[in-house]
Amino acid sequence: MLRSSKQDVCAIEAPQSICILRLSAIGDVCHAVATVQAIQNHYPAAKITWILGKVEAMLLQGLPGVNFVIFDKKKGLQAYRDLQRNLQGQQFDVLLHMQVALRANLASLVIKAKRKIGFDKARAKELHSFFMRDSIAPQENAHVLEGFAAFARKIGVPFLQDAADKPQWQMPITQQDLEWAKATLQPYRTDTSRGFLVISPAASKAERNWLAERYAAVADYATELGFKVVLCGGPTEMEQQLAANIVQHSQASLVNLVSKTSLKQLLAVLQQAAVVIAPDTGPAHMAVTVGTPVIGLYAHSNPARTGPYLYQEYVVEVYHQALLQQTGKTAAEQKFGKRVKGADLMANIQIEQVKTMLDTVIKQQGI
Questions:
Q1: What is the pTM for the complete model shown?
Q2: Distance in angstroms (rounded) separating the CA atoms of residues 77 and 142
Q3: Does residue 162 belong to any structural domain of this protein?
C-alpha cells in the first residue's frame, strides 16, 4: 500500500464548511467514508455536505455529522437544476471533488466554494482538470482509498501517512437493521458452527462474476468446515439468476438472501459474517467497513488499486496473468490500474485456489 510523506499534509486555516462531491459507486463511497470521517475527527467543528447518488445515499443515510444532498442522475438535466436549488445561498470554504466522471465535473459548476480541489492531472479524466482550481499531490500505485486520503491531507488532515495508519469507519447501521439481520440469521445458528460465510457472487458486470458451479463447490467445502453459507446481493435479474444457479449446483443447504435485503440490512448481514467471498463488487468493500475479512476474486482490475483495502493479502487474482497475456507487459511496465478485457477471465480462478485461501483466512483470523 502506498503511503504519503508528511510533506503532503498542507498547513491551512481550519475550514468551517466542506463539500464532498462523490456521486457513486457503492465501493467508492465506502472508501470515501474513511476520508470523510478522518476529516471530521481533525476538524470537528466543520460542517460537511456530501453530494452523492440516490442509491448510495440509501446506504449512507444517517452517517453522523454529514448533510447529504442527493444527485439523481436518472433525472438528466433536472438533476443539475435540483442540485443548484438545494445549494442556493451556500458557499463552502472548500470543495473536495473526488470523482472524475463528466457528470460529476458538470455538477461541480453549480457548487460555490472558495477552493475547489480535484485529482492531479495524471488521474484526471473527462476534462476534470478544467473544472478545478487546485489538485491533490500526485501519487504512484495508489489504491482508490489512498487517492481519497490525499484530499484529506490537502486540507491539513494527517491521514494514512505511514504503515501504522489504518482507515476507520463508523457506518450508519441502525439498531433496527441489526436486529433484522440477527433475527433472519438466528434460525441457522448452531453451537458447533464456525459462523456465517457470506458469498456476494455478483458484480455490476456479468463478466466479473465467477462461475456458479465453482461458487457452489466452495460453498459445499465451507459447509464441510462448519460454516453456514449465505448468499446475498441485489434485486437485478442477473443477480437472482446467478444465486439460483449456485443453489442448484450446491449439495449444501444455502441461505439465499439475494434481493431480500435493503442496503443497510445487507451491511448488517455482512457485519454478522465470519468471512465474505466476493468479486470486485460493492458488498466486498461494505464488508471491509464493518471489519469482516474478505476473500476477493479478481481478474479484470488490479486488486492493488481496487481490492478490499484491509484484506488485500486474501485476494485470489488472475489479473496479472491476464494483463501479461494481453499486453506482453507486467503491471509495473505500464500505467497503474490498467484494466484487462475478456468475458471468460474469471474462469481462470480455480476452486482449489479459493479453498486454500479460505483455509488461510480461518487460520490467520482465528475463525
A1: 0.95
A2: 34
A3: no
